[in-house]
TrEMBL record:
Localization (cell): Mitochondrion inner membrane
Source species taxonomy: Eukaryota, Metazoa, Spiralia, Lophotrochozoa, Mollusca
The protein's name: NADH dehydrogenase [ubiquinone] 1 alpha subcomplex subunit 8
Species per Swiss-Prot/TrEMBL record: Batillaria attramentaria
Keywords tagged on the record: Disulfide bond, Electron transport, Membrane, Mitochondrion, Mitochondrion inner membrane, Repeat, Respiratory chain, Transport
Major subcellular location class: mitochondrion
Length: 173
């Protein structure tokens, strides 16, 4: 997407948000519950990015996803710290791909803690792939009017021109 001097670019302060400083194993361990906990915020961000096709217009929605992530992982830390730590350490040490299949026992303990303390079930298989309707308060963006290029000049009417002269006379065989 090319930019010109007339385009608005957000300031550094607008772009700066605190980051969730978690390892990939911790994010993988909490991903299912995080996805369910922050479902509305994530969908709002994805809807904005698809409709607007301009990341500058979706900064507020992205910040809301980050805020929700801090809220969720803060609750996990306060309520299920030991269970979560054992689960993500198991994932981290399971194999190179950080497979979940080797850690089903610690996953069950973590899922039970989330259910007991945060009252949230683990999403069933296929939950995130299922079609679900998302309602938003954000107005639908209006498409820019399509500007057609200038009209091409009509070609000359060749039927009114005399036939061309053949510069090469026919050869006799």
């Amino acid at each position: 997407m090319p930019f010109t001097n007339a385009d608005y670019l957000p300031s550094y302060e607008e772009l700066t948000v605190p980051e969730l400083e978690l390892t990939s194993a911790a994010l993988r361990a909490g991903a299912h519950h995080f996805g369910k906990y922050c479902d509305s915020q994530c969908k709002e961000f994805m809807l904005c990015s698809k409709e607007e096709r301009d990341p500058r217009k979706c900064l507020a929605e992205g910040k809301e996803v980050t805020r929700c992530g801090f809220e969720f992982f803060g609750k996990v830390k306060r309520n299920c710290y030991q269970e979560f730590t054992k689960y993500f350490q198991c994932i981290d040490h399971s194999d190179r791909q950080m497979s979940l299949r080797n850690c089903r026992k610690t996953q069950a303990v973590f899922d039970k803690c989330i259910k007991d303390k945060l009252d949230q079930d683990r999403p069933e298989l296929g939950h995130f792939a299922a079609v679900r309707i998302h309602h938003t308060d954000r107005p639908k963006p209006q498409p820019k009017p399509h500007q057609l290029p200038e009209r091409i000049v009509d070609p000359p009417d060749f039927s009114k021109l005399p036939p061309p002269k053949n510069p090469y006379p026919p050869t006799q065989i």
